[in-house]
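To: structure desk
From: M.T.
Subject: fold request, one chain
Message: Could you run this one when you get a chance? Sequence is below, nothing fancy, just the single chain.
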Amino acid sequence: QVQLRESGPGLVKPSQTLTLTCTVSGGSITGNIKYWSWVRQPPGKGLEWIGAIGNTGSTLYSPSLQSRTSISRDTSKNQLTLQLTSVTSEDTAVYYCTGSLLDWGQGTQVTVSS
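Reply: Done. Structure tokens follow.
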């Protein structure tokens, strides 16, 4: 079974760039799972899809976040990376990585505050 673990800074200052890493075990990010997504849940709100990277390396982003988002991968480490630039308090959320929206990490809390 695929396991995913998110990691990154719990606190980011406004206007800075948020960088999160998802380490995948039990399966290859270039394997049978077709795409790997980042999803977030702001406090008191529902889940919001941020974007995805396919097992071939292609990417797709939410239109509302596309201008600030970059998703990449390191196949040698079996890791995915999310970068979100120019963060504001609206980016405060629990961030999850998922494998085809079926396998999920436990999530990591990110707070944007000065």
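Reply (cont.): The first strand starts at residue 3 and ends at 7. Let me know if you need anything else for the meeting.
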